[in-house]
Amino acid sequence: MKFIAQIDVMPKKEILDPQGKAVTGSMKNIGLSEITNVRVGKHISLEVEAATEVEASEKVDRACKQLLANLIMESYEFKIAAV
Amino acid sequence: MKFIAQIDVMPKKEILDPQGKAVTGSMKNIGLSEITNVRVGKHISLEVEAATEVEASEKVDRACKQLLANLIMESYEFKIAAV
User: Fold this and answer.
1) Sheet containing B2-11: which strands, arranged edge to edge?
2) Cβ-based contacts of A34 with chain B (< 8 Å)
3) What CATH class has B2-82?
4) What's the pLDDT tens digit per position in A66-77?
5) B31, A65 contact by CB (below 8 A)
6) Which residues in A lie closer than 8 A to residue B38 (C-beta atoms)?
């Protein structure tokens, strides 16, 4: 079966996010000072071939741990859906 | 009221995504050749102060159009929830 995973990789809360800080500052310049606390991370979509949803989830989890997220600075979460 | 928006900005389907292609290739090297069609975009979380959810949604939409997404190459979607 084929599954699609939607993964979010975000800088951990205790880590300073300079890109997010810069975007928060730019919001003021376009008249959107109501927008604050911007944090910028990665969104990754991928397809995975697996027998079951549990197996697909394990594969995606391994991909996150070994390749997609830097666990020292980033946390990740994902959702999986059958195609 | 304060709302939190979760925004995904992704390269459009018809646009080549070299970062995603590179990650797809790397999956093979870590023994996850079942993972294909990786696409890499941005995930942005932010807080927005607004009277209603509709108003918050309009502000976030404007932020996406004017600052967060390059509409020629990227598409975006977001969800809003009251804090």
Assistant:
1) A74-82, A2-11, A35-49, B35-49, B2-11, B74-82
2) 48-50, 59
3) alpha beta
4) 999 999 999 999
5) no
6) 44-46
CB contact under 8 A, A66 and B30: yes
Pairing assessment for the beta strands B35-49 and A2-11 based on DSSP bridges:
unpaired
**Cβ within 8 Å of residue A70, ≥6 positions away:** none
Taking the domains of chain B in order of start, what are their residue ranges? 2-82
At CA A12, angle to CA A25 and CA B63, rounded to 5? 30
Tokens at residue A3, please? 């599954």
Which residues, numbered 11 to 50 in chain A, qualify as contacts with chain B under a Cβ-Cβ cut-off of 8 Å?
20, 23-24, 26-27, 30, 32, 34-50
**pLDDT tens track for B5-43:** 999 999 999 999 999 999 999 999 999 999 999 999 999
The ipTM of this complex is: 0.93
